[in-house]
Amino acid sequence: MLKAGRRWMAVAVTGVLLFTAPPARADDVRGGQEAVIETLALTQAWRSSTGAGVTVAVLDSGVDPGHRDLAGSVREGRDFTEGANPPGTPPSRLHGTYMASLIAGHGHGPGRKRGIIGVAPDADVLSVRVILEDEEPGFREFNSAERFENVVARGIRYAVDEGADVINMSISKELATREERAAVRYAISKGVVLVAAAGNDGDRQVEADFAPYSYPAAFPGVVSVGATDRRLRRASFSNWNASVLVAAPGVDIMGAGPGGEYWVGRGTSQATALVSGVAALIKARYPDMSPPLVARALAAGATDRPPGGYDTGTGFGVVNAARALTEASLLARHTETATGAEAQDPSRPVAGGPAGPVRVVVRDEQRVTVYAAIAAGAAAGALAALAVIFILVRRVRRAHISQEA
Length: 405
Prior knowledge:
This protein is an alpha/beta fold. It has helices at 27-30, 34-39, 42-45, 94-104, 139-142, 151-161, 178-189, 268-285, 291-300, 321-331, 335-339, 365-404, and strands at residues 9-10, 13-19, 55-60, 74-79, 106-108, 114-117, 124-129, 166-169, 171-172, 193-197, 223-228, 244-249, 253-257, 261-266. The protein has twelve helices and 14 strands. GO terms for molecular function: serine-type endopeptidase activity. It is found in: Cell membrane.
């Protein structure tokens, strides 16, 4: 019997298959992306970063490296689901290809104007298979056998060791394990940004003020992403709780599928992939920026902020790539903060878990001078006070000795 809390699921509600052959017009697919491109301000963002030099690990159901919109950008990594499907069963790779295209699709044809253009079109993808799709014959075995309990934790560590800069996890489950939490901490200690889906159970409210938490999105330090509808409001299916940091479009999202297909779907999966793409743009521009600071840039650069600046549905607002890059440029001016050396040292305990606060050091010469003078004065005063106390003690002792004599 399946245990719902242990089941890893792709959190996309996949919609309609559009094409199995090259589209009739150049804008059949690309035109379907216009709303996302505009909402994320990608045209402006691409002037300063296209994701070149960054590797995004896609922990999913596998990525089709032969799709014309991803060809040359995909490296196939380990399959941690091996043994769940019967021997010789080819992986579906639908969900993983879909997500990879939103992150790093580079289009095809003259000027790459056809097909899917991802948020970070010059980024590379590392495909790490950690889930099976519902229709695969080994799905039940995968989600019930103990040997597959910590495939995501192993996948995270593998991706980090293989040089990933960003890890996209458009997957979720209800319960977490100690191994997964440790893997998240390991990734952050190595400077790797983790982005995960908040989940598609938003209609299943469990308390008065939030919908279920899901993992790995709810782990401290992971960028938890909610989905918005066409009006940039929380999509009805998107989980709403205090783990949500930011949101991105998640309804009627065009993406690529295996075998040259194109799909339109909805879910927090798609929103997560878009945010991972923005994180890749930031890491390409500022490769040493720590995960907490990348998360801060994503949140600070968000638009369509909710009243009061934050809510549990869309977090700090809808991610905007151009504004996030601007915020990252401001944060990068402070070397100690941007690199997060203390947070990335696994031998140091970090307050608040893996995403604990990073000390901000701002060097202002005038303030340093004033503070140094104050410190010097305080030290001199302390020495003077000690001297007075010493003299008084000696006098008291002399008087006491005289009385005894």
